[in-house]
Amino acid sequence: MKLGVSPDTFPPRSHEAKRISVVDAAASVFCREGFAGANIDLIAVEAGVSRQTVYNHHGDKEKLFIAVVRDLTERCNAGIFATIATFPDRPADLEADLVAFAERMNRNCICNRDGRFLRKLIQAEGERYPELFAEWREQGPGRTWSALAARFARLAYAGHLSIDDPDVAARQFLALVNAELQITFMLGGTPTEEEVLRSATNGVRTFLGAFAKRKMPAGKQPALAHA
Amino acid sequence: MKLGVSPDTFPPRSHEAKRISVVDAAASVFCREGFAGANIDLIAVEAGVSRQTVYNHHGDKEKLFIAVVRDLTERCNAGIFATIATFPDRPADLEADLVAFAERMNRNCICNRDGRFLRKLIQAEGERYPELFAEWREQGPGRTWSALAARFARLAYAGHLSIDDPDVAARQFLALVNAELQITFMLGGTPTEEEVLRSATNGVRTFLGAFAKRKMPAGKQPALAHA
DNA sequence: ACAAATTTAGACAGCCTTGTCCAATTCGTC
DNA sequence: GACGAATTGGACAAGGCTGTCTAAATTTGT
Questions:
Q1: DSSP-based three-state secondary structure for A212
Q2: Measured between CB atoms, which of B119, B171, B209 is closest to A209?
Q3: What is the pLDDT, as a whole number, of residue A24?
Q4: Which pLDDT value is given to residue A225?
Q5: Which of the residues in chain B have pLDDT under 70?
């Protein structure tokens, strides 16, 4: 009740710390074992608390699962939008800048712990919690694609790219820079730095091959090229 | 009625039929519930046999799971190679032919029951059965990509495309024509015919934007490009 | 129609898991 | 040091699941 400003109010300190510890451990176990296979005792041990503490904090297994997904969704979305904020709006070297951006995106949002865990939970349990993952879908990919499409549209408007449909281009950009990581993702692995870099490099090269400045809408149109 | 050639020897008929029925039901239940959540009783009911029959045929839950994965892998690989055999080696209309090929690939190998089930099992249990899925990886994606890369190389050699690395191009082709289906796949859904067509169309258009005949190897080469 | 093999239903033991309860202990704060 | 809240460990009931066993019913080949 003191500390009017930045409230660590009621729960002293390690209360919240334990809650986080439990959610983290639960994320790990749910991902490894699936919802049905996850064992509350194991989560408790991995979190370094007693089983009763898990129940005190989260009520039951399903509520704990939902807390895990909400937590991951929130952090992943924050990471994605923070990364999109670093998009190269005024590129010095378009190819190099896009490769660097793609690498940040992959490393900080897709390949990191939260990204891998959230993806796996969605794939494994998405059908069991429709409204939970519908929420993720709207707040996550939906807004991600829009934001990224807007950045590409801006690059096009500034004359760096030639894009028909920025939304399609945004989705294809992400698909391309991940093209070489698909199998690793499927099997739950973490790509090496080098794999991430190579996939990003190859993906951006192809992306620019399709969308870089020169554009001829099917017919020949050499007249506009007054460089 | 001995059929000396193709021996349906001892086990008469519905024996094998029941085995298949069990494996099919098991695939469905394992996918819906995960390995730990799958219930042998439920599999038996869904297969229309008694629980004991399940055990008679497959021994235990783990052996049944392995049989399911092997079965799916085999059928999926067969489908993929059959589809690759329809690749347009001598295209009349390159874009239209590639779109049609991509649609076949998506519809018959990726979006069908076997494809969705196998993908989900790999994602959910891949880490638990390393050698089982390593086998899939080599026989499936590994050979798929090689075969597809060879087809693209042939198109390039015939002068229809300009490709540096056919393996990379093959992976990017698949990534592009699936770009718009990712979220649906993640949540376990089945895309509509129209979504498949649109994703294939957009993907092939971008692919050809990057790899269609004209090529400038990254560095500027304005000597040749006097527009 | 007969004999062998297969399938079925049901019961069963053994094990594991969830979620609750409680008494003893520790922790943070005053 | 003392107080109240949080945590712990352990016991516990209820229920579910796997895998086995058996005797009866059914199917199959001849």
A1: strand
A2: B209
A3: 97
A4: 38
A5: 1-13, 214-227
Question: What DSSP line would sit under B142-206, residue for residue?
Answer: IHHHHHHHHHHHHHHHTTSB--S-HHHHHHHHHHHHTGGGHHHHHTT----HHHHHHHHHHHHHH
Q: How far is the CA of B38 from the C1' of D25 (A)?
A: 29
Answer yes or no: is B14 CB < 7 A from strand D: yes
* DSSP one-letter string for A36-92: HH--HHHHHHHHTS-HHHHHHHHSSHHHHHHHHHHHHHHHHHHHHHHHHTT--SS-S
- B34–A34 CB contact, under 8 Å: yes
Q: Could A179 and B182 be called an inter-chain contact, meaning their C-beta atoms sit closer than 8 Å?
A: no
A57 CB neighbours strand D below 7 A: yes
Instruction: Inform me whether the C-beta atom of residue B182 falls under 8 Å from chain A C-beta atoms.
Output: yes
Can you tell me the distance from the alpha carbon of A147 to that of A77, in angstroms, rounded to the nearest whole number? 12
How many angstroms is C1' of C17 away from CA of A40?
8
Asked whether residue A56's C-beta has any atom of DNA/RNA strand D within 7 A, the reply is: yes
CA atoms within 13 A on the CB side of B106: 32
**Is the CB of residue A101 less than 8 Å away from at least one CB of chain B?**
no
Q: Which residue has the tokens 């005024």?
A: A90
Cα dihedral B171, B173, B175, B180 in deg (nearest 10): -170
**Cα distance between residue B134 and residue B69, in whole Å:** 12
CA atoms of B105 and B114, how far apart (whole Å): 13
Residue of B nearest to A207 (CA): B210
Question: Full-prediction pTM beyond 0.90?
Answer: no
